[in-house]
Amino acid sequence: MSRAAIATPGDRPSPRLRPGKRATLGDWLRWGEKLYAKHRVAFGQVATNAHDEALYLLLHTLNLPLDSKPAVLRRKLTPEEEVRVKEIFRRRTEDHVPAAYLTREAFLGEHRFYVDERVIIPRSYFLELLPEQIPQWLPPGKPVKRAVDVCTGSGCLAILLAHRFAEARVDAIELSPDALAVAKFNVARHHLAPRVKLFHSDVFDAVPAVKYDLILSNPPYVPTRELRGLSAEFKQEPAMALDGGKDGLDIIRKLLRQARERLQPHGVVVLEVGGLRAAMDRAFPELDLHWLHTEDGEDCVCLMQATRLARWGHRNL
Questions:
Q1: What is the pLDDT of residues 277-293, one digit of tens each?
Q2: Closest Cα partner for 98 from 78, 80, 120, 128?
Q3: What is the pLDDT of residues 2-19, one digit of tens each?
Q4: C-alpha of 253 from chain center
């Protein structure tokens, strides 16, 4: 989480913060880090480490800029601010409420989104792949005119598509009415309502017949049996946004089946599938899935072209 990446000066041990002690923001940061360790907080929804996430929560709770200078760590908190900070850390570490649900916001790059418990917290490799890698698979010099985000959740990926492809009309599909309400709010906040159209639909079932240049999705892909093993933080996200069925491929199978009739001849489907790379290769060998490279080496986003998908026989579904 780069927006709150101030380095903590020195290696002093974390202080014991007692009622009435006027501690600095840096003291509270170190105290918060100890709480994260004590309660074995899980990361991956907002930040990847205790320092960055605790700092983010501090700055947000105190209404300070997320790009504050290191000098902010010397700022002393008022008694009222200390009460607010203690409560936010209690909810994060003892109740394991994800940070994004506490602050009601999440970021993908420079873009900020409203989130709450109705939607999965935005986190996606598409932020890394949309600027350059994915467009390389589309005809050069031919603008993307129609794109769709299937299982849009908060609407974040549909919004990224609209920002990346300035001439495109973007559809955003979601089965959950609650999530769709959040997506509608975010689309309006980004002033994209004229270009991003929302559909309440199970994949393409209730979407008018349109052919797309680009079909993108970060669908539910966690095998049902694995949901029980998720950390407390991830269990607070909507199960509907995570549960991919017995083998994790239920929604993906339906999406690929319907996508065959929804792509332009030059179009591509791009899916983010987490830990299902081996399962995808086994299930769909004829599709010759191309796995896009990501900086962290996870390479869990696959791409397939319309020509390959069109030749895919019904017996493979």
A1: 999 999 999 999 999 99
A2: 120
A3: 444 444 433 333 445 554
A4: 22
Q: Which helix (H) or strand (E) holds 302?
A: strand 301-305
Give the mean pLDDT of 90-95: 97
Same domain for 40 and 153, yes or no, is no
CA distance 161 to 134: 11
219, amino acid identity: P
Domain end (from 76, 103, 130): 103
Nearest Cα residue to 218 out of 182, 242, 202, 185:
242
Distances (CA, A) of 73 to 4, 10, 201: 12, 12, 48
Examine the domain organization and report whether 67 and 115 are in the same domain.
no
Contact residues for 16 (Cβ-Cβ < 8 A; gap 6+)? none
Domain at 287, CATH number? 3.40.50.150
- Contact present, 213 and 187 (Cβ < 8 Å): no
- Check: pTM over 0.85? Answer yes or no: yes
Cβ 51 vs Cβ 8: under 8 Å = yes
Q: Whole domain around residue 54: which residue ranges?
A: 2-103
User: Quick one: pLDDT at residue 17?
Assistant: 56
Identity of the amino acid at 98: P
Q: What is the mean pLDDT of residues 225-245?
A: 96
SS3 for 268-279 is EEEEECCCCHHH
245 CB burial (10 A radius; 0-12, 13-18, 19+) = middle
Q: What is the pLDDT of residues 34-59, one digit of tens each?
A: 999 999 999 999 999 999 999 999 99
Query: Nearest Cα to 73, choosing from 87, 85, 86, 58?
Result: 58
**Distance in angstroms (rounded) separating the CA atoms of residues 294 and 8:** 29
Taken in order 236, 240, 245, 247, is the CA torsion positive or negative? negative
The structure tokens listed for 255 are 């999406």
